[in-house]
Specification:
Elements lengths: L1 H19 L8 E2 L4 H22 L10 H23 L8 E2 L17 H17 L2 H30 L1 H9 L9
Antiparallel strand pairs: 1-2
Helix pairs in contact: 1-3, 2-5, 3-4, 4-5, 5-6
């Protein structure tokens, strides 16, 4: 019951963000290249499939009884980290890749260290979901395709930022990690 409630809140929050934080027709540049669509199609295909597999196959990651609760905690932690990242980005956050008229590169808060912290938050939630299902096949089904969709999205975003900010963004890239501190 707790798992279902948390996942429902998680998905509802993402739908809310998707509806509220779209760029308007007056925005300077939209260069999404359908990456938002790919993310949503991937999520909507892999979450139900992963859930089905978890219910119908015996492929536990571990027998540790609290392992699914760790996954639930990761879903919530990822959500909170994503919301914090969006709050830090402020006015510049949109769900579609867009450069606003007054756009600046945010380099404070978590953006001082990471270029894509909101995606990290989402991926932590997806990893948590895979752990909560406690099924290694379901974990792979839900985490790998979604990770690939987010990596594609980051590639698109970085190209747009380089095209718009040039050397300023290149310098920022050299000082920060893309997604995982000290690793990537």
């Amino acid at each position: 019951m707790l798992y279902t409630t948390i996942v429902a809140i998680w998905l509802a929050s993402e739908i809310f963000l998707n509806r509220i934080f779209r760029s308007g027709p007056q925005e300077k540049q939209k260069a999404d290249r359908k990456s938002l669509l790919w993310i949503w199609v991937t999520i909507m295909a892999t979450l139900p499939l992963g859930s089905y597999v978890a219910e119908h196959t015996a492929a536990p990651i571990t027998s540790y009884v609290y392992f699914p609760k760790i996954g639930i905690a990761l879903i919530v932690s990822g959500m909170l980290f994503r919301f914090y990242s969006i709050y830090t980005l402020g006015h510049y956050f949109t769900v579609d890749v867009t450069i606003r008229e007054d756009h600046r590169i945010v380099q404070h808060g978590v953006y001082k260290y990471l270029r894509h912290p909101s995606y990290l938050g989402s991926l932590v939630s997806f990893i948590g979901n895979g752990i909560a299902m406690n099924n290694y096949i379901a974990f792979v089904i839900t985490v790998l395709p979604v990770s690939a969709a987010f990596l594609y999205r980051m590639y698109i975003e970085e190209r747009v930022l380089i095209n718009n900010f040039g050397e300023e963004y290149r310098i920022y890239r050299q000082k920060t990690y893309r997604l995982i501190p000290f690793i990537f």
